[in-house]
Design brief:
alpha/beta, Immunoglobulin-like, 2 domains, globular, binds copper (II) ion
Length: 138
């Protein structure tokens, strides 16, 4: 009988411990995911054979990276990569260069941007202005 009580108490303690661990893990998994880096520096080796710097932006539920630093005074290609993109970020608008296009659901779209002066912030967004990105020319 005494052994049974010990067993019951042990089971209860283990149960509480398991519950506590579960809650603890729950708290961890409920934490907001680590946000992706919002700024990417375009390295000088990202220049293609035509002497253009190439910036790649993934388009799906927004633009990634959202903020990019690029070199001023160099013609630039912004390469938009869609991959089963069914949200409105595929309807791209870059007002400063008069660019507006519905990107393919999946594919790669190169947008030529002429050399920009240092300090220029080129902004683009979905047609509704819900998602946006900025290229800082330095
Ligand atoms: Cu939108």
């Amino acid at each position: 009988m005494k052994k049974n009580i010990t067993t019951v108490i042990t089971v209860i303690i283990l149960g509480i411990a398991a519950l506590g661990a579960g809650m603890y893990l729950g708290v961890i998994t409920n934490k907001a995911p680590v946000s992706p880096p919002t700024k990417a520096v375009v390295k000088s080796d990202a220049v293609n054979t035509d002497g253009k710097q190439v910036i790649e932006i993934a388009v799906k539920g927004g633009y990634t990276p959202k903020a990019i630093t690029a070199k001023a005074g160099v013609p630039t290609v912004i390469r938009f990569v869609t991959d089963n993109t069914f949200d409105c970020s595929s309807s791209l608008s870059i007002p400063a260069i008069n660019y507006r296009k519905n990107l393919p659901r999946t594919g790669t779209t190169d947008v030529d941007v002429p050399a920009q002066t240092a300090g220029t912030k080129l902004q683009g967004s979905c047609s509704m202005g819900m998602y946006s990105f900025t290229v800082d020319f330095e």
